[in-house]
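Bit of a strange request maybe. I'm writing a small parser for structure token strings and I need a real example to test against, not something I typed by hand. Could someone generate the tokens for this chain?
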Amino acid sequence: MFKGLIDWYLDSLESGGYPVIALLMAIESSILPLPSEFVIPPAAHLAHTKGNLSMAGIIIAGTVGSWLGATVMYWMSRLAGRPAVLRYGRYVFVPPEKVEGAERWAARFGSTGIFISRLLPVVRHLIGIPAGIVRMDYKLFSLYTLLGSAVWCAVLCWVGVKAGQDEALMKGELHRVTLWVVGAFLVLGGIYYLFVHRHMKNTNDPTLK
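Reply from user aminoacidic:
Good idea to test on real output. This should exercise your parser:
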């Protein structure tokens, strides 16, 4: 199954190219659960082995797509306002506790948190909500989103090249797939706990409410 998904996505990349990457990364930066870790690395592997895509093009497409998705979240939240987001967000996979957690994150790290959030799981696709609610300057929001997304896409390109050098993985051998998946979840889980969970959870600190 895993091998089939890889083949399907690689075929889509060969026919659709950069727009496919941009579209999927826009989805990843919105409310839908599509991890960027499953979008950029296979594209980087294809670029490294066949050369019909470039690393620079993948990074640009991924960055633009991330910015588009984050922009949608920003303006939806800004136009709807906090009460509407809290009331109706649960119907689009954004329950109130996630919104409030993202608000605590934004209150703690300020505008630079936009840049940091693009490098972290979970908060990455939520940060546009508090930014829109507090009506953060859109140009500043876009700048930090573009910069953070570019760095993240570059990191994922490197991962894609390294993973692509593992021939057993690309053949879909179960033990190698399992090793990479478990390793990725351990790393991302650790990052999430250290840099996200502790700051998004409920706290009695009034400065984070």
